Amino acid sequence: MSAHIEATALRALLTQVGGDRDLQRRFVHDFVHLWHSRSQRLAAALGAQYPDAEEAHVVLLSIRSSSTMVGAITVEATAAMMHDALRDGDIPGSMRHITRLNEVGEQACADLATMFALQR
């Protein structure tokens, strides 16, 4: 597989969609193509003069759940650290991980795009 994608999760996703490889591919496609907008929404929510913790919470939940489903383990782990800090009311602590989240998110998307022959 890759350092950023867990094969077991991709197999589980295929099982969850009833063995429909086209549906699995569509889910992966959506993850890859939504990455940029999700990361921008998160940066905007956390980096604003008056951070929007609720919006950041929603975006992090979306990133975490979809990352888990496609097996993007480093993305999910990094988003979990950010989410924990956010729940503790530590917005600067959450924001400290955003560069890492963007790096592992881009790497996971590149790996998935290669694995599923997706254009980015």
- What is the CA-atom radius of gyration, in angstroms? 14 Å
Which strand-content bin applies to the residues? under 5%
Q: Which shape, going by the Cα principal axes?
A: elongated
**Poorly predicted residue ranges:** none
CATH class group: Mainly Alpha
How many helical elements?
6
Q: Write down the domain tally.
A: 1
**Could you tell me the mean pLDDT?**
96
CATH architecture: Up-down Bundle
Helical proportion, percent range: over 70%
Secondary structure class reads mainly alpha
Question: Could you give a short account of the major beta sheet?
Answer: none
Cα(first) to Cα(last) distance is: 19 Å
The number of strands is: 0
Protein name: Hpt domain-containing protein
GO biological process, one term: phosphorelay signal transduction system
InterPro entries: HPT_dom_sf
Summarize this structure briefly.
It comes from Cryobacterium lactosi. With about 120 residues, this protein is mostly helical.
Describe the 3D structure.
Helix 2 runs antiparallel to helix 3 and helix 3 runs antiparallel to helix 4 (73-87). The protein contains six helices and no strands. The longest helix is centred in the first third of the chain and has 27 residues, at 21-47. The chain has 120 residues and is mainly α.
